[in-house]
Design brief:
Layout lengths: L4 E5 L5 E6 L1 E3 L6 E3 L8 E8 L4 E8 L10 E4 L59 H31 L18 H7 L6 E5 L2 E7 L6 E8 L6 H11 L10 E7 L2 E7 L6 H6 L8 H21 L3 E3 L8 E4 L2 E4 L6 E3 L21 H4 L4 H17 L15 H10 L16 H14 L10 H9 L16 H5 L8 E6 L4 E6 L6 H9 L1
Antiparallel strand pairs: 1-2, 3-4, 5-6, 6-7, 8-9, 9-10, 10-12, 11-12, 13-16, 14-15, 17-18
Keywords: ATP-binding, Kinase, Lectin, Membrane, Nucleotide-binding, Serine/threonine-protein kinase, Signal, Transferase, Transmembrane, Transmembrane helix
Family: In the C-terminal section; belongs to the protein kinase superfamily. Ser/Thr protein kinase family.
EC number: 2.7.11.1
Length: 522
């Protein structure tokens, strides 16, 4: 319109509506022109009503009463122009001209009613346009510089010693992951020098901490990472997974790398891990209602990892020790072993890593962690929660049956409910029996025969058909079928139909003792 106007622009430089800068004087009720380049402070009110979709802009000189009539208004649908995460701010430019723009004060409100007017007496004055520096200020600056030089000479030794103590490993390529990196110094202070141990396992030690800046409680896990090969990809995946958001996933807040250690920082869950509630003698027994809720929560979180995010996330370490109790929602934690790959692509071969009893048998042969290997571990988790027993007992007897073998034996004998945790007491037996059978189906040695997590969630929620799998169809030698010394060449096929599930097995010749020993070691 001209070089002194107010306009409403939506996603472009062409205004929806505009008007010359002016305001309605309350005394005379007349329209008074305003100069936007006079150097005098102005007040602006911008209001949007989501119901009527009306956007109004009112301007006046600072100190003048607010005009009753807006300068410009228009009906605009901001829902199509504003993202879910939106930043509100200011932008000033004059092209090739030189100018200064100052925002002396502003307020923002979401909801009904008007935002209260600013108290102009509390705003800072408009900065002076004089460029000459006062003589007194020059003297003060000179004295300050001299004082700083004196202090620096005495503080250098202290700073060098402190830097060595909290030195971190950081390379140029990590700059892009900066927002996800947390300083070692802050983690050292948060954990009182890594003294507050709350857990330990084969992959690292977990400490409780409180971040001083935010006061947030965190769980800090140290993971040994001696090899530099693949570290960049690993840190990249950690940074990516810190963007995961789901009510049944513990938030991964960031990482730190120092002296061969990778330190992961999570939200802290005050009630601890599920295995402490399942196996500790000093904890009250969990009811089936609580266990069933935990199972469905973990299934929902795992489905999000497999299908609900921009990439496929394979967790690789699903077990009760990595399920945390958050009162209303159980949360799956510990992404220190997780791996990513794009939807539709194939996972890469990695080292066989995980926890014995939860490792799918094909991992020892292919080395590929997939969503199907996660389903296998989830099946072991289902049996673990329902039976109150760990999937495997680590002792010198290699012939001792695993938990899946024992549940299958009870099922074949027509007494599958005998496998439940005796501390459960009265419960919804139909639901518990469903979980036991689903745990066996997820633990199938043939990855092609396991359901997807979407099917698992549908079955648990009652929206999917419950598979009927006669135990006699699982083969006469159930130890070979569900144990950890089974043959990889064993043929097994599951047909998920609308009413029933048929399972057929055809065992092949057994492996040699050397092959079986290698499988157990894996």
């Amino acid at each position: 319109m001209n070089d002194n106007h107010v306009g409403i622009d939506i996603d472009g430089l062409e205004s929806v509506t505009s008007a010359p800068a002016a305001y309605v004087d309350l005394g005379t009720a007349s329209l008074v022109s305003l100069s936007l380049v006079s150097g005098k402070p102005l007040q602006v009110w911008i209001e949007y009503d989501g119901a009527s979709m009306r956007l109004e802009v009112t301007v006046s000189p600072a100190g003048k009463p607010r005009p009753a009539v807006p300068l410009v208004s228009s009906i605009v649908n901001l829902s199509s122009a504003v993202a879910d995460d939106t930043y509100i701010g200011f932008l000033g430019a004059n092209g090739a001209a030189s100018s200064s723009h100052y925002v002396l004060g502003w307020s923002f409100r979401i909801g009904g009613g008007r935002e209260p007017d600013l108290d102009l007496s509390k705003l800072p004055p408009l900065p002076s346009s004089k460029k000459t520096m006062p003589r007194l200020l020059i003297v003060i600056l000179v004295l300050a510089v001299v004082l700083v030089l004196i202090l620096v000479s005495g503080a250098v030794a202290v700073l060098v010693k402190r830097r060595r103590r909290f030195a971190e490993e950081e390379e140029d390529w990590e700059i892009e992951y900066g927002p996800h990196r947390i300083r070692y110094k802050d983690l050292h202070a948060a954990t009182r020098g890594f003294r507050d141990v709350i857990g330990a396992g084969g992959f690292g030690t977990v400490y409780h901490g409180v971040l001083r800046r935010s006061g947030a409680e965190v769980a800090v896990k140290k993971v040994a990472h001696g090899s530099r090969q693949g570290l960049r990809e690993f840190v990249s995946e950690i940074a990516s997974m810190s963007r995961l958001r789901h009510r049944n996933l513990v938030q991964l807040l960031g990482y730190c790398r120092r002296r061969g250690e990778l330190i992961l920082v999570y939200d802290y869950m005050v009630n601890g891990s599920l295995d402490k509630h399942l196996f500790a003698d000093n904890k009250p027994a969990l009811s089936w209602e609580r266990r069933a809720k935990i199972i469905r929560d973990v299934a929902a979180g795992l489905l999000y990892l497999h299908e609900g995010w921009e990439q496929v996330v394979v967790h690789r370490d699903i077990k009760a020790a990595n399920v945390l109790d958050a009162d209303m929602n159980a949360k799956l934690s510990d992404f220190g072993l997780a791996r990513l790959y794009d939807h539709g692509s194939k996972p890469q071969t990695t080292h066989v890593i995980g926890t014995l009893g939860y490792l799918a048998p094909e991992m020892s042969k292919t080395g590929k962690a997939t969503t199907s290997t996660d389903v296998f571990a989830f099946g072991a988790f289902l049996l673990e929660v329902a039976c109150g027993r760990r999937p495997m007992v680590c002792d010198d007897n290699l012939d001792s049956p695993g938990l899946a073998d024992l549940v299958l034996e009870r099922w074949k004998a027509g007494r599958i409910m005998d496998a439940k945790d005796p501390r459960i007491g009265k419960c919804d037996e139909a639901d518990l029996e469903l979980v036991l059978k689903l745990g066996l189906l997820c633990s199938h040695p043939d990855p092609r025969s396991r359901p997807s997590m979407r099917q698992v969630v549908q079955i648990l929620e009652g929206t999917g058909t419950v598979p009927e799998t006669p135990p006699k169809d699982l083969g006469s030698n159930n130890r070979l079928f569900f144990g950890y010394s089974e043959s990889f060449d064993e043929f097994a096929t599951v047909f998920l139909a609308s009413e029933t599930t048929t399972v057929t097995t055809q065992p092949s010749s057994s492996h040699s003792n050397d092959e079986q020993q290698e499988l157990i070691s894996g």
